[in-house]
Amino acid sequence: MIKDFVKPEVLAPAGDFERLEAAVSFGADAVYLGGGMFGMRTSPSNFSDEELPKAVQYAHSKGVKVYLTCNTVPRNNEVDVLPEFLQMAENAGVDALIISDIGTLTLAKKYAPKTEIHVSTQAGITNYATANAFYDMGAKRVVLARELSIEDIAVLRAKTPKDLDIECFVHGAMCVSFSGRCLLSNYLVGRDSNRGDCAQPCRWKYHIMEDTRPGVYFPIEQDDKGTYIMNARDMCMIEHIPELVNAGITSLKIEAEQNLHTILQLLQTHTVQQLMSLWQTPLTISRFLTG
After folding, report:
1. What are the pLDDT digits (tens) for 40-67?
2. How far apart are alpha carbons 155 and 139 in whole angstroms?
3. Are 171 and 267 in contact (CB under 8 A)?
């Protein structure tokens, strides 16, 4: 057996109470969800201030942790209400706040001092110096930028404190811009992607139309259905979980856009199965965790 090996956490989204129950029943160790403000998903099914304590109580009764997203980039008028929101979150019993903004992080330390701080992928953490800086600011966990290679992750893990958790995505959108910081949605439809209201135009189908031929659309690639020119297919790291474990990942994060129920269940089931096969088979663990 490998010394000091800790099975990574499986972290799943919970857009509402139904999906929270599904995430728990399909083996999540922790869930992340949004409240009434400051989350990167503006869905009306987020948890209200009254619903959040009930959600936390349910999850904790099943041994599952709850992380609350607080990862938008707040404006001046929103900062005024941040302290109350942070105090509400701590009183609700959430295990961590997922934060991208340094000002929000500073306020969280003051108004929710007992709650862990997880630095969001929105912060664009691509190197160990940045991870260490956030650790020095009080972060318990950093969520890495999705652009990193497995080798990058391993180097970052080796050069950061052991008690700093390292989280990475195993499924989710690969945004057209840097770790989700994109202005395409703002420009095309006036919906701010950095404030939880991304219209996801990188997933739309696009054709070329020549100015003198209105109504005649040419595919950008040889595909009469158009092409997704700005966005790669969703990241899918299921087959690479052994390498991620070897690199020292603490938490494996699943993102299912809009929390599509069936997709989420399938992704979570496969992720848990992959981890269990590693955890229960010492030879397999040794093969991936040595050298």
Report:
1. 766 657 899 999 999 999 999 999 999 9
2. 19
3. yes
Three-state SS at 31: strand
How far does Cα 92 stand from its chain's mean position? 21
Model pLDDT for residues 193-205, shown as the tens digit of each residue: 767 788 888 778 7
Segment 239-250, tens digit of pLDDT: 888 889 889 999
Q: 120-164, pLDDT tens digit by residue?
A: 998 989 999 999 999 999 999 999 988 889 999 999 999 999 999
The secondary structure of 204-263, three-state, reads CCEEEECCCCCCCEEECCCCCCCECCCCCCCEECHHHHHHHHHHCCCEEEECCHHHCHHH
Q: How many Å apart are CA 154 and CA 164, to the nearest integer?
A: 14
Two structure tokens written together for 112: 């929710």
Per-residue confidence (pLDDT) for residue 2, from 0 to 100 = 37
Give the residue ranges of DSSP H helices in the chain: 17-25, 51-61, 76-79, 82-92, 102-111, 128-136, 150-158, 184-189, 241-247, 261-280, 282-289
Please provide residue 226's backbone torsions phi and psi, each rounded to the nearest 5 degrees. 90, -170
Judge whether 243 and 153 are in contact, CB under 8 Å.
no
